[in-house]
Amino acid sequence: MVNTRAKIKKIQNTINLWFSEAAMAETNHLSTESGALIGSNDDLLIEILLRLPVASVLRFKSVSKHWRSLLSNRRFTLLYKNASSSPGLYARNLYIPFDDEIISTPPFRNLDFYPDPRGIRIVQSCNGLLLCRSYDGDERMHKYYVFNPTTKQFAVLPSVLGGMAVRKTIVFMALAFHQTDCVHYKVVCFYLPNLDDVFKIQIYSSDTGKWKISDESLSLPHPYFVPFHYIVYWNQAIHWVPFGDNRLYFKVDTEEFKSLPLPVSVASSEGYEDWDMTLYFGESRGHLHLVERADRSESHLHLNVYEMLNDHSGWFLKYRIELDELLDAYPEMREGFPYMSSPIYYEFEVFDVVRGEEDDETFMVIRVPGKVIRYNVVDKSFKQISDQIYLYGRTGHMHVHRYIESLVSF
């Protein structure tokens, strides 16, 4: 790991040197041989830039008008999104880098300096963009924003159609964005206009800059008990945790609801009785995951990580995680109920499942009392990446949002 990091750093330093030469050639019309080669070949320029950290790419935008145009072009920004990384996450207002050995500046310390005097909180993270809203105050007065924390660019969403009468019945908003299947981001608004059990839907597109009312609607027996804080955009659809009779997802491209199957182990026990049995529900590198306890009755802390098939036809068991060694290293996980041996009483949360390019690079981010742990799912190694004491208590999935570097503009 250390050797790999050193090699990457050496490559980045070499590339930065090449670009410094190219930049000098561009501004002074004087070139070294390598600088001239890079500066005169856009394809080569792009190939090298895709391997640079985002801070360097943003810095090189100021070299010249040509470079700024090249690096702002949608082709480059979408290619860079494919090559970009997930360096960390936000738990409440705390930024936690996945690798504590790499010293980096948080993408933002808070959102208070953005244009809302009441402050802004994150609602959802989606492939490099954040959906945010006014932090507090009257629900009818909430404003919604789409924010790119990498470029510090944001857009204020216009009010939904129907004015105040609709705004006060909004139940949740969901962001849909992907560099290939939804390049113009969309925001889907679910609301209960008559305070009954039928959701109405409006969809905003950044391409048109307008809201439109969808012909689709959704009827649920208990709409206010749906776990909408588990909102995930994946495979052209908006998902929330399947439980009970609510096993639907919304296809954004066709504006229709589809049925989402349950994992076999859950379906055989007649489904979830309580959505809180789901420890994690999220997406990483194009994979949709659901994490649950392997067996609530056993005394060992074992987790199942399920992955959804790309056609939405079913789940398969991707990883079985045994956390007994984590319990030994952090006995405080048992302190809340010291006389209870069942894992349902252990104090921990699964913040994230982060897929690597290779299986042995995949890890989970787990919160134990007062600490955050990075746990490798293959070799079972783990290390502490944060010890911020104000993370005591349940953080909750609605307050954990992954940060992904992206140069996408809107």
TrEMBL record:
The F-box domain, residue ranges: 42-80
Q: What residue range is the signal peptide?
A: none
**From what superkingdom does this record's organism come?**
Eukaryota
**InterPro entries (UniProt xref):** At3g26010-like (IPR055290), F-box-assoc_dom_typ1 (IPR006527), F-box-assoc_interact_dom (IPR017451), F-box-like_dom_sf (IPR036047), F-box_dom (IPR001810)
Pfam family name, one: FBA_1
Q: List the protein's name.
A: F-box domain-containing protein
